[in-house]
Amino acid sequence: MNEEVVKMGKGAQLTGILSRGTESNHSPVVIMFNAGLLHHVGPFRLGVTLARELARKNIPSLRFDLYAQGDSGLPADVAVDPDDRAIESLVHAMDYIESVLGKRDFILT
Question: 61 has which bridge partners?
Answer without folding.
Answer: 19, 30
